[in-house]
Specification:
six-stranded antiparallel β-barrel; 14 strands; alpha+beta; six-stranded antiparallel beta barrel
């Protein structure tokens, strides 16, 4: 009887040890990178677009052309639970149809609300039956060289593709072509591909610190993102009630987001405006 109890006790000890080992292994698998992706994933938007192009005879260019559909792709970030999404202007410029899908499989038709060609940013909107999950916002003001970052996007149409790398450089000025150039970009070696445009560059807290925008053609692992602090200033203008609803308020504000500091400052107030009458 003693031997049986001893054997049973040994079996229980081995089983408990194995259970603890498995639990420890599972916790090791859920790395900070995995946790960051889980936090941000519900707010990443996969974008598919369509537009028509007219094929013309190369010799008789004045003749009637044959329309053909061109499919495009990109990524967006949920910035407002009411269905507002930020992406790149070049993702949605001149398109006729925008389809936006989320990590949970839901899909919507989207419309362009406002855009800024110079800064290559646009706001699109979907009508969802429930509030959308807003992407946690970080700051690009304290990014460090070598800091780990994550890119999530609709790379080559492969939805919600995740790549990781580091911050390779800061304050890069990049000229893409004769009509488009960027200033103060984040450079990263996280793989960014066609379709990633407009998607988030995340820090290890799962916060968006940049909007992926461009790659260096012919190079390997040289991608660029608009710092979120710069993008936020443009988005604030694109989302302004004066812009969306043509409602004048006379208030000019700016946000201050540095490290743990999160403040909004009143920059100016137009005399006799609603803002001035409200006492701001």
């Amino acid at each position: 009887m003693t031997h049986r109890l001893l054997a049973f006790g040994l079996c229980c000890t081995v089983w408990l040890t194995a259970s603890v080992t498995v639990a420890q292994a599972e916790s090791l698998r859920e790395t900070p990178l995995v946790k960051a992706i889980k936090r941000a994933a519900p707010s990443v938007v996969n974008i598919h677009t369509e537009k028509s192009s007219v094929e013309r005879d190369q010799v008789f260019a004045a003749g009637n052309g044959k329309p053909r559909k061109i499919n495009g792709m990109g990524t967006g970030v949920v910035i407002d639970e009411r269905g507002y999404i930020v992406t790149n202007y070049h993702v949605v410029a001149d398109v006729e149809l925008i389809r936006a899908s989320l990590d949970d499989g839901s899909s919507f038709t989207a419309t362009v609300v406002s855009s800024d060609r110079e800064h290559d940013l646009a706001i699109i909107k979907v009508s969802a039956s429930k509030p959308l999950t807003v992407m946690p916002a970080g700051t690009s003001s304290d990014l460090m060289l070598g800091e780990p970052v994550i890119a999530v996007g609709n790379a080559f149409g492969y939805e919600s593709t995740v790549t990781s790398g580091i911050v390779s450089a800061l304050s890069r000025d990049v000229e893409v072509n004769a009509t488009q150039s960027y200033r103060n970009l984040i450079q990263t070696d996280a793989s960014i591909n066609p379709g990633n445009s407009g998607g988030p560059l995340l820090n290890m807290n799962g916060e968006v610190v940049g909007i992926n925008v461009a790659i260096r053609a012919g190079a390997q692992r040289i991608g660029f993102a608009i710092p979120i602090d710069d993008a936020r200033q443009v988005v604030a203008q694109l989302m302004s009630i004066e812009q969306l609803d043509h409602a004048f308020h006379g208030l000019e504000a700016k946000d201050v987001k540095q490290g743990e500091k999160r403040e909004m400052h009143v920059a100016s107030v137009i005399a006799d405006s609603p803002a001035a009458k409200a006492g701001l």
